[in-house]
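Let us practice reading a record.
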Amino acid sequence: MSSSAYEVRFTRRAEKDVKKLTPQLRRKLYDILTEVIAPDPFQGKKLVGDLAGSYSYRLTYKDRIVYSIDAKSRVIYIERAATHYGE
């Protein structure tokens, strides 16, 4: 990652989500975080409603990475790393 990339931190909930992912999806998550979200966190879809202020990026057809951005500190907080459908 370049020095201009944001730091990525996981919430406890997101850490639990990651533990449930297959090794393949963990690799995909890592690649998305390092190649897409950390360099430019505003690439995700801005969320509304209960998740207003957060962003979403597709991990699989049903799974999303939900995160918030602290632009001042240049930190991205991963809030969820699994589905938010049907929960």
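A brief commentary: The longest helix spans residues 23-37.
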